[in-house]
Amino acid sequence: MSHTERLTRYVAEFVDEMAANGIENVVISPGSRSTPLAMTFVEHEQLKEWIVIDERSAAFFALGLAKKTKKPVALLCSSGTATANYFPAIVEAKQSRVPLIVLTADRPHELRDVGAPQAIDQIKMYGNYVKWFHEMALPEDSEMMLDYVRSKAAQAIDMATEGNPGPVQLNFPFREPLVPDFTIDDMWGKKRNPDKYGFSKGEKVLAPYELQRVLEKLAGKKNGLIVCGPQTDIKLASAIFALAKAWGIPVLADPLSQLRSGKHDKTYIIETYDAFLRDQAIRDMLDADFIIRFGAMPVSKPYLFYLKEQKNTLHFVVEAEEGYREPTGKRTHFISADPATFCEQLARTEMQMDVSWLRKWVTMNEIAEKHLQQHNKDEITEGSAVYSLVESLLHDSTLFTGNSMAVRDVDSFLLQTDKQMEVLANRGANGIDGVVSTAAGAAASGNPVTLLIGDLSFFHDMNGLLAVKHYQLNVTVLLINNNGGGIFSFLPQASEGKYFEALFGTPLNIDFKHAVKLYGGDYCLVENETALQEALAKAQQQTGLSVVEVRTDRTQNAAWHQKIWDAINQEIKAHRW
């Protein structure tokens, strides 16, 4: 049997098994050594291929698609430095628990360490940032090897999705010639073995005696908090609020918790805590007996300060799978159980909470909401721009937010709403790279995406717009251009006048209109809130790429935020508690 037939059967059965085990999308960056897999993926009728030329952009695109669909996505590139360009997105996927099947083509063993072109050491190259690595055997078509290649396809998907999801890597050495032959008989191996590998999984439920231990710790406690950080299970909201209602305790909801929006009961939601927990005196008024946290650590830094100061507070972190996401080092009881089921278990037990505790949080929240909604429509600020963006979003929207100031302004100005929307971000490693590509990948799911992003992050990943143009994805971008790193104006570095602009402010002085036109997008620059609302409403009705730019001043923006925080804190402290 020829080399080409052996190669074709081996690769085809691998690809077919991936499709049989639920892979629907594969993101491919063109290259020579990956030819066998690339052509076979495109040939398989159950798979949708996305061609993204730049590997760094491609990896973030796959990340966004997997994040939005909540399904693993395959990612394929050629050998050499192409594989290294995947690294930032793989780090983010590991940290944010997103399943990716990373397929790296490689030179065969005889061409390694001998100076062959595009040959680097790809063995375990992503280190601990992948959950599993496997060096694939050279292609053969014996019964045993075809079973082997199918088993590895199935195992890769299972490893990426079991427990806490994350990326896995399979490294494929291929000898030339590389072009498969799709005319061979029974290429997909259906006649040989019509069945697929299967994995059955169940839900983790806390055992009765473990539940009793938790309840004994909580017995007699009057001032409790539920905190929900970044997480993507929209169904969790109803379970959390049912528990909050049963116990009469407030829920601190992160902007990425999926709790601030939707039709569920939001009576007990506290969404403005980032604003009033900035004040030490107010934090001192809010000593909690216990905190139960779901999801990752919230975005809010004032909440982090608050938690660190809660010296005698019982702290519980609930994870669907084992994990350690508790950056304060606080003594914590980790609970490994399905979060919604755990909420239902707790809600069956009656707890006598202090009504004044809930009333205090709700009143502070109402005061903060009042100030955060006050805007002058004849001008525009970064905060009011985000408020207008949220108001403009259509029902069942996806909001993707960049990091640094973007996600923090979403934390401040995404107030509770009955609109159904999903809010996503790359909050694993919190980087500003790859954000445009990740949002484009989320839009590839078929749902329009609105991206909130700053100018530095937009600049970092402008080539992510190529996929938006190529596939005519529906992406609206609200570009907040403060000509540099706006978040540093809120940090101690802002007082270092000699170094600030060069090292931290880093102004770009770029006219982004030309970049948007380069990628075939619609561009609009607005100068007040009324014009912004009109531009966003128009963009929401258009197809393809629309970019609405708002230009602000970093120094003025920091002062504007501080003025609002001061007004909130002054009114709260003046209130008769």
UniProtKB/TrEMBL annotation:
Pathway this chain belongs to: Quinol/quinone metabolism; menaquinone biosynthesis; Quinol/quinone metabolism; 1,4-dihydroxy-2-naphthoate biosynthesis; 1,4-dihydroxy-2-naphthoate from chorismate: step 2/7
Keywords noted in UniProt: Magnesium, Manganese, Menaquinone biosynthesis, Metal-binding, Thiamine pyrophosphate, Transferase
Q: Which organism is it from?
A: Tigheibacillus jepli
Q: Which reaction does it catalyse?
A: isochorismate + 2-oxoglutarate + H(+) = 5-enolpyruvoyl-6-hydroxy-2-succinyl-cyclohex-3-ene-1-carboxylate + CO2
Write down the Pfam families for this protein, in alphabetical order. TPP_enzyme_C, TPP_enzyme_M_2, TPP_enzyme_N
Q: Where is the Thiamine pyrophosphate enzyme N-terminal TPP-binding domain?
A: 14-125
Catalytic activity, EC: 2.2.1.9
Against PANTHER family, the record matches this protein to: 2-SUCCINYL-5-ENOLPYRUVYL-6-HYDROXY-3-CYCLOHEXENE-1-CARBOXYLATE SYNTHASE, PROTEIN PHYLLO, CHLOROPLASTIC
**Cofactor or coenzyme needed:** Mg(2+); Mn(2+); thiamine diphosphate
Q: What's this protein's function?
A: Catalyzes the thiamine diphosphate-dependent decarboxylation of 2-oxoglutarate and the subsequent addition of the resulting succinic semialdehyde-thiamine pyrophosphate anion to isochorismate to yield 2-succinyl-5-enolpyruvyl-6-hydroxy-3-cyclohexene-1-carboxylate (SEPHCHC).
What name has this protein been given in UniProt? 2-succinyl-5-enolpyruvyl-6-hydroxy-3-cyclohexene-1-carboxylate synthase
Concerning SUPFAM superfamilies, the annotation shows: DHS-like NAD/FAD-binding domain, Thiamin diphosphate-binding fold (THDP-binding)
User: Gene3D superfamilies from the entry?
Assistant: 3.40.50.970, TPP-binding domain
Assembly information from the UniProt record: Homodimer.
GO terms of molecular function: 2-succinyl-5-enolpyruvyl-6-hydroxy-3-cyclohexene-1-carboxylic-acid synthase activity
Q: Where is the Menaquinone biosynthesis protein MenD middle domain?
A: 221-400
Q: Which domain of life is it from?
A: Bacteria
Question: Which residue numbers delimit the Thiamine pyrophosphate enzyme TPP-binding domain?
Answer: 435-550
The entry's family comment says:
Belongs to the TPP enzyme family. MenD subfamily.
Q: How is the cofactor bound?
A: Binds 1 thiamine pyrophosphate per subunit.
